[in-house]
C-alpha cells in the first residue's frame, strides 16, 4: 500500500512537471498587432471600438507609462487561461520593467473564458476583487448577450480610469464615452472554486511528497525547471512574436512585440460567460 502511494505521488508530480515544461517550451503566442493596445485575432471588435480603445490606451501610456492591453483569441487550446495569460503577459513584457505597470484583458471566444492579468505595480490600484467586479459587472453581461464591443470598451474604460487615478491624472479620451454596468447576480462560486482546484491539488501533492518521500520529487521538479529555464534562454522570435513594429519601448522581454519588459506575479481574476 505504501509503495502504491509513492508510485501514485511520483507519477502525479511528474505529470505536473512535464506539463509545465512542455507548455513553456512549445506554446507559441500570436504576434503583437500594430493596433498595440487591442489585439483581436478573431475579427470580433469593430473598427470604431478599436479606435476608441487605442485612443484611451495611448493617452494612458503617455501620461502614466502604464500599458493596458486587450487580447482576443479563439481558444487557449485546453491550457488553463490563468497560465496562458501569465505566460503571454511575461512573453510580451506588458508594462515597464521598472514599474511592472501592465494590465492584460484576455478573452478566449470559443472557450467563453476571460482573464485579467495585473502587473505587480498595479495590484494596489487594481486588486483581484476589483478586477473581478469590473469584469462581472461591466463585461460579462454584455458578453453573454454577444455584445463584445461594449463589454470590452466598458471594462477597458474602468481599468484605465482606475490606473489614471492611481497616477493622479485624468484622461480626456474617456470624457465622451458612456459606460454602464449590469448587476450580475449569478453565483460565481463554481468558477472561483475551479480556479482553486489545481493549486490545491499541487499543494497536497507537495505535502505528501515531503511526508512520504522526504521531498525528493519536489527537488527533482525544481531542478528540471531551472535546467529548462537555462536552456530556453531569452525569449526570442521563436515564440512567434513580432519585433519592434508595434511601437512599444523595448525592455527585458527580449523585444517580443516591443513592450516595456514588465511582468506579472499572477495577480488578477478569471471567469466565464
UniProtKB/TrEMBL annotation:
Residues 252-273 are annotated as: Disordered. Residues 1-24 form the signal peptide. It holds the Pfam family TPM_phosphatase. Residues 38-156 form the TPM domain. The keyword Signal applies. The keyword Nucleotide-binding does not apply. Keywords: Signal. InterPro entries: TPM_dom. PANTHER family: UPF0603 PROTEIN YGCG. This is TPM domain-containing protein. It comes from Clostridium lentum.
